[in-house]
Amino acid sequence: MTTDHERWRLILGPAAEGLGPMSADGAARDAALEWLYGRDEERAERGVRSAGNEESRLTTVDWLGDIHRLFPKETVERLESDATEHYGIDDMVTNVEVLERARPNRALLKAVLKSKHLMNAEVLEAARAIVRRVVEELVERLRVEVRTAFHGTRLKRPSRRGASRDFDLRTTLRRNLHRWQPENRRVAIERPYFHTRQERHMRPWQLIILVDQSGSMLDSVIHSAVTASCLHALPGLKTHLIAFDSSVVDLTDETDDPVETLMKVQLGGGTDIAGAVSYGASLIENPQRAIVAVITDFYEGGSVRHLTGTVARMCQDGAHVLGLAALDEDASPNYDRETAGALARVGAHIGAMTPGGLAEFVAEKIGR
Q: What are the structural domains, with CATH classification, of the chain?
């Protein structure tokens, strides 16, 4: 059990040595935190965890072993996330032994995707296993949301299980007309009829997902791949997945395997949204049954005029165009409002969504 003075020592570091001696585990926790946060050059100005004089001899492998032994799961995930995202400890994702000991989580997934170009074949194989484990968890979670969104349309089949939203007025009147009461001008309902809620019977639709693969959009890239995978197998829906920066890469053939999709993503580069949208427009078979989701921060490196013109033509033809500044679990965007506003004025729906929100939007449109 951690005492009060040990908790303060873990917060303040060696600056709190005068609070009293630490237990063996407390000292080990302090050393593990110092190994990581001792890299923060600004912490001395804040008076938090001021560095000691001794250089740490811990390796990354040792440190991982220690934190898994000394801290609860939530703390371990935060420490590993800080190691990869804030302090750029490359061997967290370029060393086989380190990868095998790390706990798969979304922060580690993002670090792998950012660093995979640095990996040799052996490390890449270990990294792929981590990507697969994290992606499988995301897919399983989203599948539930997709099933919820797409389950339960009203079909013209009778059911004895009544719910007001499923009441079939036309059939009920037709089947009970023999009970018409002229004096009261009413039909005495002997038996009401209801629609059965079953899997949606969908006419063919297209969903074209265009996702910006610049580094700032990494969360959206991950969730776009997972979302496309979950929607890919739905009957009556043809899903395309296209990644873009200054060029366009059609990943539709890999849509059923989001791991392979993500391993092929090349983060960085310029941003030609107009070029990507033009490519997406060329894929449309029937504008009246097409949903085009452009997932980007709207910082256009190409022609804004070309972009707005293409979006305007798609909307005029009847396509549903979504401009999403974020597609992730937080849906908290940072985007160019001027470009986004220009697209909204020509008919695009602008906003941010969770993956489940996009599934609900698609289900609503194709279920009409």
A: 4-103 (no CATH), 152-199 (no CATH), 205-366 (3.40.50.410)
Cα end-to-end distance, the chain, whole Å: 59
Q: Are 25 and 70 in contact (CB under 8 A)?
A: yes
Closest by CA position to 296, among listed 259, 258, 322, 269: 322
Q: Is 4 or 242 the better-scoring residue by pLDDT? A: 242
pTM: 0.70
Residue 153 confidence class, pLDDT cut points 50, 70, 90: very low
Q: 212: part of which helix (H) or strand (E)? A: strand 205-212
- Given pLDDT bands bounded at 50, 70 and 90, which one contains residue 155? very low
Q: What is the pLDDT of residue 196?
A: 54
CA angle (59, 70, 48) in 5-degree steps: 75
Exposure class string for 321-330: b at 16+ Cβ within 10 A, else e:
bbbbbbbbbe
Cα atoms in the Cβ-side hemisphere of radius 13 Å centred on 173: 3
Can you tell me the distance from the alpha carbon of 170 to that of 191, in angstroms, rounded to the nearest whole number? 13
* 57 burial type by CB count under 10 A (0-12 exposed, 13-18 middle, 19+ buried): exposed
